[in-house]
Structure prediction request, 77 residues.
Amino acid sequence: MNWPTVVLIIVMIGAVTSTLQTYLRSRRPARDRADAGREERLIEELHALRERVAVLERIATERNSLLEREFEQLRDR
Prediction:
């Protein structure tokens, strides 16, 4: 191969790479917006699940204390 051919190949590789990078950067904001929407939905779902767990914990502890009181009442009889 002669030098002009090598230089031409290197320039073409650079041009293709630059074009590809520009194309991929132009698509990134749309993907980021979709990710942001997904992230918001996941955060909302996380809050809802935390509320449910808190309710279940309250129910479980209330039932335990209620059962303990009932057992003690039965023992006292």
Notes: The longest helix spans residues 3-76. The mean pLDDT is 83.
